[in-house]
Amino acid sequence: MQQFVPQNPEFLELIKGKMHENHFMNHLGFVVGKIEPGFIEGELRIEQHHKQQIGFLHGGVVATLADLAAGFASFTLVKKNQTVVTAEMKVSYLNPGLGPVAFCKGFVLKAGQKLIFAEAEIFTENNGILTLIAKGSATYAVIDTPV
C-alpha cells in the first residue's frame, strides 16, 4: 500500500471530531478502530435493522460502509480548511453479508489537489470464516470548508 503524508498535521484530531459529528455513521453504529494517512479501518455490529428481508446485510448499508471508509480515508489527506464530498461511487456486491459483524477498510489510491481516488473492502465473519462481500470504488472532490 502506498504511503501518504497528511497535509494537516492535526488530521487525527480533526477526523475524530468529524466522525463524532457524522450523525448517520453513529446512527448505524459504525466504529472506526484504525486511522492512518490514507487509510481507515472499522467495524459494524450487524443488528436486525441492518438486514434485508432474507437476512443478509442490506446493500444500502454495505454501500454506506464503503462510502464512509473510503471517504474518511480521503479526508485524512486534505488541508485543514478542506473537506471531501463524494463525486462518484460504484459498489460491487460479491457475496451475501452473513454473520454478526462487518469489517470495513478504506484506502486512498491517488490523492490529487481537486480529486481523490479511493477504494473500500467490506467483509463479514460468519462461523470463523472471513468473506469479502463487497468492494467500493469512489472519487471524492476536495472542496474548501464553508467559513
Describe the structure.
The chain has 147 residues and is an alpha+beta fold. The chain has a single domain (11-144), classed as Roll (Thiol Ester Dehydrase, Chain A). It is built from three helices and six strands. The chain has helices at residues 11-21, 23-28, 59-75; strands at residues 31-36, 39-45, 82-93, 101-111, 115-126, 129-144. Strand 4 and strand 5 (115-126) form a beta hairpin. It is elongated. The model has no long low-confidence stretch (mean pLDDT 95).
Sum this structure up briefly:
By secondary structure, the chain is of the alpha+beta class. The protein has helices at residues 11-21, 23-28, 59-75; strands at residues 31-36, 39-45, 82-93, 101-111, 115-126, 129-144.
Q: Major sheet, described briefly?
A: 6 strands, antiparallel
Name the CATH architecture.
Roll
Order of helices and strands: HHEEHEEEE
Task: Supply the number of helical segments.
Answer: 3
Portion in helices: 10-25%
The general outline is elongated
Structural class: alpha+beta
**Number of beta-strand segments:** 6
User: What share of the residues does DSSP label as strand, in percent?
Assistant: 35-45%
Overall mean pLDDT stands at: 95
The CATH homology group name: Hotdog Thioesterase
Write the layout of secondary structure elements.
Blueprint: H1 11-21, H2 23-28, E1 31-36, E2 39-45, H3 59-75, E3 82-93, E4 101-111, E5 115-126, E6 129-144
Antiparallel strand pairs: 1-2, 2-4, 3-6, 4-5, 5-6
